[in-house]
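Input/output pair, single chain:
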Amino acid sequence: MTAQTRILLVDDSKLARMALRAELQDLGADADVREAPDAESALGLLEHETFDAVLMDYNMPGMDGLAAATVIRARFPKTGVALVTANAQDAIVAEARIIGVPLIPKPVRRRDLQTFLSAR
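Output:
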């Protein structure tokens, strides 16, 4: 990962965001990490700030992570997006594949996180 990678964590669970932030710190990532509690807030941040990567939960109130990832891929094509979820149902995995969004299963393994971020 390059110096000062900008990462947006999107999850309605503050605890999940804290855990993901801790994993990033354990990787030794020199990252500017921002957080959003839902997809709508994340899209608002993306309108005003540039991020290298978005790590987004699937199950959130309002717009789900897959719908938000579709919008991000269309409007911010240089921003990498990964779906971080414990909900790896076949239909979700298939749709994520179709739109080109990798799925990182919860609980997040450092190796999966590192693989995604190193591609940024």
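The first helix runs from residue 14 to 26. The first strand starts at residue 5 and ends at 10.
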